[in-house]
Design a protein that fits this description.
The complex is a heterodimer of chains A (about 120) and B (about 110). Chain A has about 120 residues and is an all-beta fold. In chain A, about 0% of the residues lie in helices and about 50% in strands. In chain B, β3 and β4 form a beta hairpin.
């Protein structure tokens, strides 16, 4: 069974750093891109970027380029999303999702349950 | 950037048909996917490549595209279908999601 297990909720202060994780199991982790998706309170889904764990090829949404870092450790089948200095506006639910290369415009076929990040003074 | 427009909410009577639209410039020329998000649960892919259903998704769910609108149709709506629904496409190497539609089953 394919699973993406995300790390637990975090409460942080502005300016702090943070790294959250997404561990894949039940499939060959290095064969699929992993994406990160943000959902701010009361808002829709926003694609942040994705990474190919085999070679760590990474693509970012222009909206998130320079604001976050996406990485992966293929030895532990884990993808990461990292901030160096959080802002209150980073408070949101963050999902990881597997990209299914079934077409040239692939869907996301499996998702984690999300990691809730709260940034407050 | 490419924008996808969805109605904020759609209501449907139990057992009736719900239609959720997703508007975008020439979306009929793109590949559209649909996701269901129940609060507290991971999002679920319900339609991919415009019309296809993943394994395990009932045939009550169907998708179509034409011109500037893609549509997710849910037939014989059930209480368990109450959720947020999102359309998604790729544009210039970036994934784009619609704003989401809250489906209420009355």
């Amino acid at each position: 069974e394919v699973q993406l297990v995300q790390s637990g909720a975090e409460v942080k202060k502005p300016g702090e750093s943070l790294r959250i994780s997404c561990e894949g199991s039940g499939y060959s982790f290095t064969d699929y891109w992993i994406a990160w998706v943000r959902q701010m309170p009361g808002r829709g889904l926003e694609w942040m970027g994705n990474i190919y764990p085999t070679d760590s090829d990474t693509r970012y949404s222009p909206s998130f380029q320079g604001r976050v870092t996406i990485s992966a450790d293929k030895s532990t089948n884990t993808a990461f999303l990292q901030w160096s200095a959080l802002e209150a506006s980073d408070s949101a639910m963050y999902y990881c999702a597997r990209r299914w290369e079934v077409s040239g415009s692939p869907p996301f076929d499996y998702w984690g349950r999300g990691t809730l990040i709260t940034v407050s003074p | 950037s490419y924008d996808l427009t969805q109605p904020l909410s759609v209501s449907v009577a139990l057992g009736q048909t719900a239609r959720i639209s997703c508007g975008g410039h020439n979306i009929g020329g793109k590949t559209v996917h649909w996701y269901q998000r129940v609060p507290g649960q991971a999002p679920l892919l319900v339609i991919y490549i415009n019309t296809r259903r993943p394994s395990g998704i009932p045939d009550r769910f169907s998708g179509s595209t034409s011109g500037n609108t893609a549509t997710l149709t849910i037939s014989r709506a059930q209480a368990g279908d109450e959720a947020d629904y999102y359309c998604q496409v790729w544009d210039g190497g970036n994934a784009v999601f619609g704003g989401g539609t809250k489906l209420t089953v009355l």
